[in-house]
Write a structure and sequence with these properties.
This protein has a single domain, classed as MetI-like (MetI-like fold), CATH 1.10.3720.10. Helices cover 70% and strands 1% of the residues. Strands 1-2 form a two-stranded antiparallel ribbon. The radius of gyration is 25 Å and the shape is globular. The longest helix is centred in the first third of the chain and has 35 residues.
């Protein structure tokens, strides 16, 4: 009787650690954001105002902080605000980044998964090497590569492919290149973890049944790696959606994403409630693809059972 009780206590402790972490570093900050998004700061800067009026007993919730995000104050109409534009732009760039990472990462992951077991650790180490360097330094390195007098332009001029520098920095292309480069390992690793467990005898069976290599890849490999594709897509899409550093350093004035808008509301306009409302909505946007991901992974787990 004594041993099972110790085992049960250990299991509860192990389960309690991640729940405590989520409570302290996700649920509590989210509740603080939600609280600030519903207050009325008035002419004061301090964002922490009481929501409950002790004299009248009325709960004062300022929903205008959310309505102003969807409603233009200059008569532009509903959903025609800079905030909605920034949200849509952020979703578009996050989708493009995730798709580019998928197209580039899939051959890499497939090559690593089919390589010799003795070579795989070295290949995985090469994928993870960028994590050993500062994120900010890697983004600044791309500025040196894509600048008018940067490495890439100088190489093109030296090879005679162009007579003058090509504008590459502070454009959509430079921003997408930087985001794809930074988040590419997040797509490679889950794809590799899924592909390395695949039974490649299924491909041989498809070839024996007359399938071409391309058809066998599309009908066998891709469906079996669906979980890795969805996991990698989510791991790239979610941080790309709220990206702030890369658009600020590599993007132009037309590449304002929602992370920059939240920054401006916080530190330029000192409008903490609206910035918090934007952050709450962004979290809601992120929860949707997460729910889709867990739905598909749950279905895959049930199918394996």
């Amino acid at each position: 009787m004594h041993a099972p009780s110790i085992s049960l206590l250990g299991k509860r402790f192990v389960i309690c650690v991640p729940y405590t972490w989520l409570l302290l570093f996700f649920c509590l900050p989210f509740l603080i954001l939600l609280y600030i998004s519903l207050v009325d700061v008035g002419n004061d800067i301090a964002p922490f105002k009481p929501l409950w009026d002790s004299e009248t007993g009325i709960l004062k919730l300022k929903y205008e902080n959310y309505l102003s995000i969807f409603r233009s104050g200059d008569g532009g109409g509903l959903f025609k605000t800079i905030y909605i534009e920034a949200f849509l732009r952020s979703i578009w760039y996050a989708l493009c980044t995730a798709l580019l990472c998928l197209v580039i990462a899939y051959p890499f992951s497939y090559f690593i998964a089919t390589a010799s077991p003795r070579v795989r650790p070295a290949l995985l180490m090469m994928v993870m090497l960028p994590f050993w360097t500062s994120f900010l330094l890697r983004v600044y390195a791309w500025k040196g590569i894509l600048a008018d007098q940067g490495v890439l332009n100088q190489a093109l001029i030296f090879l005679g492919l162009t007579n003058e520098p090509i504008l590459m920095l502070y454009t959509n292309v430079s921003m997408l290149m930087g985001m794809t480069y930074v988040y590419l390992p997040f797509m490679i690793l889950p794809l590799y973890a899924n592909l390395v467990k695949m039974d490649f005898r299924l491909l041989e069976a498809a070839y024996d049944l007359g399938a071409s290599p391309l058809k066998a890849f599309w009908l066998v490999t891709v469906p079996l790696s669906r979980t890795g594709i969805i996991a990698g897509f989510m791991l790239v899409f979610i941080p790309s959606l709220g990206e702030f550093v890369i658009p600020s350093l590599l993007g132009g004035p037309e590449n304002i994403m929602i992370g920059r808008v939240v920054w401006d509301e916080l530190f330029t306009s000192n409008n903490w409630p609206r910035a918090s409302a934007l952050a709450v909505i962004m979290i809601g946007v992120i929860v949707v693809p997460l729910a889709v991901y867990y739905h598909y992974t749950g279905e895959s787990a049930d199918a394996r059972k």
